[in-house]
């Protein structure tokens, strides 16, 4: 059956071949998410399935974006490397640019405002609390990257498409609060209604 762990996807990758492998794996997971959980996303499988390789590589090379990868370990092979493990989920975290942070070095992930998006768990491993682990790992990651210059707390925003009640309930149980019940957005000519949530996060002492 195996155990699970969560790792930060290295950025930059060790070399170009490793980057290509990261890209291929994330592409497979992302497309499975869009196809299998279409009602949870505003992006469409049909739009992303035919995108060129650079589309996926650029996502990984973006500066101020972090991918947390959920992996399943083979208990018979306890010393597997990151790429030897099975990738079964991910979450994307990004630093929101603002006037102050835009003047800082692009490799500095310390900031006040963050966004959590694209949380996905493969169907065959759901029901084991892994979504909760990914969200908690997101909060912990942000805690470790809050700017301490002004001793201010940070906050993380996320949006849930109407009808995705499981995600909405999970986020609220973990401390997110609703800040907008009916956020309207348009993408690719279609209209969507979202629930916006926020959690305030104190840095590590």
UniProtKB/TrEMBL annotation:
Keywords on record: Acyltransferase, Transferase
Q: Which domain of life is it from?
A: Eukaryota
* Pfam families on file: Acetyltransf_1
Start and end residues of each N-acetyltransferase domain: 29-199
Q: Known PROSITE patterns for this protein? A: GNAT (PS51186)
Q: Name one GO molecular function term.
A: acyltransferase activity, transferring groups other than amino-acyl groups
Protein name, as recorded: N-acetyltransferase domain-containing protein
């Amino acid at each position: 059956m195996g155990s699970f762990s969560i790792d930060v996807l290295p950025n930059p990758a060790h070399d170009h071949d490793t980057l290509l492998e990261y890209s291929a794996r994330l592409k497979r997971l992302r497309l499975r998410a869009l196809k299998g959980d279409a009602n949870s996303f505003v992006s469409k499988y049909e739009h992303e399935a035919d995108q060129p390789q650079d589309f996926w590589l650029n996502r990984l090379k973006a500066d101020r974006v972090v991918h947390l990868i959920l992996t399943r370990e083979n208990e018979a092979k306890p010393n597997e490397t990151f790429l030897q493990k099975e990738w079964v989920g991910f979450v994307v975290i990004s630093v929101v640019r603002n006037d102050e942070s835009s003047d800082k070095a692009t490799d500095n992930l310390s900031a006040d405002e963050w966004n959590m998006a694209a949380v996905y768990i493969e169907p065959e491993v759901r029901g084991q609390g892994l979504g909760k682990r990914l969200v908690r790992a997101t909060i912990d990651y942000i805690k470790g990257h809050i700017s301490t210059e002004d001793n201010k707390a940070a906050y993380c925003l996320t949006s849930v498409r109407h009808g995705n009640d499981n995600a909405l309930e999970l986020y609220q149980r973990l401390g997110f609060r609703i800040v907008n019940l009916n956020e309207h957005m348009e993408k690719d000519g279609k209209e969507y209604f979202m629930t916006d949530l926020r959690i305030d996060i104190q840095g590590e002492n």
